């Protein structure tokens, strides 16, 4: 694949049927702390976790209209997201995200709990005491 794009990696996924061939998992295109925006809907946010493949309920996935329902075999991102009206946590497929080139700060209150400052467009994780 092209540099800068997700790279496919053959890997077994615990708890997922593999059949004869192993599942193909793409390396995540976006990193923790990166600011992204949705391809179609007017919101943006900062990535705070990544699932290598879809890891939500079937009910959640089926609630998405079929004509815009994303594939399950791609990274999914947990975002501290916001739009013009509110802040929330979003779960978004890689195919529906774009890098956000804006220098506008994000106002989501949980960002300060997980991240320190923003450097070169990426929020740096806070050091946390591990128990």
Task: Please describe what this structure looks like.
By secondary structure, the protein is mainly beta. The chain has one domain (8-125): Roll (SH3 type barrels), CATH 2.30.30.390. It has 2 helices and 9 strands. It has helices at 58-62, 111-114; strands spanning 8-10, 24-26, 35-38, 44-51, 76-82, 87-93, 97-99, 115-119, 122-125. The strands form 3 sheets. The protein has a 5-stranded antiparallel sheet with strand order 6-5-4-3-7, with no helix packed on it. Strands 1-2 form a two-stranded antiparallel ribbon. It is globular, with a radius of gyration of 16 Å. It starts with 7 loop residues before the first strand and ends in a 6-residue tail after the last strand.
CATH topology: the name is SH3 type barrels
Task: Indicate the mean pLDDT.
Answer: 84
SSE order, as H and E? Answer: EEEEHEEEHEE
Extended strand count: 9
Structural shape: globular
**What structural class is derived from the secondary structure elements?**
mainly beta
Tally of DSSP helical segments: 2
The CATH homologous superfamily is named Hemimethylated DNA-binding domain
CATH class descriptor? Mainly Beta
CATH level-two architecture: Roll
Number of domains: 1
Architecture blueprint of SSEs:
Layout: E1 8-10, E2 24-26, E3 35-38, E4 44-51, H1 58-62, E5 76-82, E6 87-93, E7 97-99, H2 111-114, E8 115-119, E9 122-125
Antiparallel strand pairs: 1-2, 3-4, 3-7, 4-5, 5-6, 8-9
């Amino acid at each position: 694949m092209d540099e800068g794009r997700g790279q496919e990696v053959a890997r077994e996924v615990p708890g997922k049927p593999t059949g004869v061939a192993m599942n193909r998992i793409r390396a995540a295109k976006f990193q923790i702390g990166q600011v992204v925006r949705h391809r179609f809907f007017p919101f943006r946010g900062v990535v705070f976790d990544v699932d290598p493949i879809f890891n939500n309920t079937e009910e959640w996935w089926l609630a998405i209209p079929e004509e815009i329902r994303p594939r399950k075999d791609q990274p999914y991102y947990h975002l501290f997201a916001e739009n013009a009206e509110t802040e929330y946590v979003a779960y978004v497929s890689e195919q529906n995200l774009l890098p956000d080139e804006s220098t506008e700060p994000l106002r989501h209150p949980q960002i300060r709990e997980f991240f320190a400052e923003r450097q070169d467009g990426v929020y740096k994780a806070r050091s946390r005491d591990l128990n």
